[in-house]
Amino acid sequence: MSRIFQPCLLILPLVMLVLAGCSVNAQDGRRSSNRNADNRNKEATVQPAAKPGIERTPSQGPIVWQADLETGDLSEWRLDMKDSIGTEVDSGKCSRDGTGVTTEQAHSGAHSMKLVINSQKTAGCRQFRKLEPASGQSYYYSAWFFIPEHVQVGVFWNIFQFKSNIKGKSGLFWKLEVRNNEAGDMMIVPVWKGPIPGPHEGDGVDNILYPQTKTIVPVAKWFHLEVFLKQSENFDGQIIVWQDGIELLNMQNVRTKYPGGIQNWSVNNYGNQLTPNPTTLYIDDVAISTQRIGP
């Protein structure tokens, strides 16, 4: 059963944004206990750090890794990695062009990544970048997305996620879903999907949605998603989500991974019962950085 986090009071002092909220039961709409979202606008500038034992090319400026797909393939996703195991993780009826890259759409240059799923049953095309998240450092993760036609979401549609691995066990902690509002518009909805108690100390194991009404997802137009993640196996992490420069979520004192676990990140076309079916998603100009890039 999912719970929905609904903001009910917004106060804007000069230097702090505090969002107090209340959660409701997604099944019957009954109001439950208040949840303090602890939304404070604190953006960090962090220094890149390599995972011990792995050589990497020194970064230029705030960007520590990027993929513009202009190589005509997915080789950028494997830079500085010993192997490509776990870079492309596909399930169900996921299909990619021969190289994984297309010239049908592009945010910049001539190429983008094209992911197509048949979601009559759950299916996923997932593109992981694991090196930088595995360092444990705080980073900004960003990408441009293009949805060529309006999509009606039946069960779920996950396009951006943070997972955690430990001793062969993999769990999904935070994700960005596309959902439809009452008018049918597509919206980005941050979701806590932790397999362990969270996201805050004292919470149980639950699936919590954080819907927003600030902006919709455009059709047949590129849009930008960026997430700042301060990793935490306890409850001192932070996640901030922006769409096209508009802040959708800012939560502190949250958990992001298993205790002793490694953080993973991927962009995806991963869903169930989407219309139209098959469903196509294009992704371009993906980056991990130590400073916010913005659209």
Short description:
By secondary structure, the protein is an all-beta fold. It is built from one helix and 19 strands.
Protein topology:
Elements: E1 2-11, E2 18-25, E3 31-36, E4 63-67, E5 88-91, E6 93-95, E7 101-102, E8 112-118, E9 123-129, H1 131-134, E10 139-146, E11 152-166, E12 169-180, E13 186-192, E14 207-209, E15 223-230, E16 237-243, E17 246-254, E18 262-275, E19 279-289
Parallel strand pairs: 1-14
Antiparallel strand pairs: 1-2, 2-3, 4-19, 5-9, 6-8, 7-8, 8-19, 9-18, 10-15, 10-19, 11-12, 11-18, 12-13, 13-14, 15-16, 16-17
Key words describing this protein structure:
nine-stranded antiparallel beta sheet, ten-stranded mixed beta sheet, Jelly Rolls, 49% strand, 295 residues, single chain
What does this structure look like?
By secondary structure, the protein is mainly beta. The protein is built from one helix and 19 strands. The chain has a single domain (44-49, 56-289), classed as Sandwich (Jelly Rolls).
Structural class: mainly beta
Mean pLDDT over the full residue set = 84
- How many DSSP E strands? 19
Please give the alpha-carbon distance between the first and last residues.
35 Å
- Counted by DSSP, the helix tally is 1
Alpha-carbon Rg, integer: 18 Å
CATH architecture: Sandwich
Question: What is the CATH class name?
Answer: Mainly Beta
Number of domains: 1
Task: Give me the CATH fold name.
Answer: Jelly Rolls
| Shape, per Cα inertia axes | globular
Q: Please provide the ordered H/E string of secondary-structure elements.
A: EEEEEEEEEHEEEEEEEEEE
Low-confidence stretches: 8-60
Task: Describe the strand arrangement of the main beta sheet, using strand numbers.
Answer: 3-2-1-14-13-12-11-18-9-5
Largest sheet: 10 strands, mixed
Percentage of helical residues?
A: under 10%
Strand content: over 45%
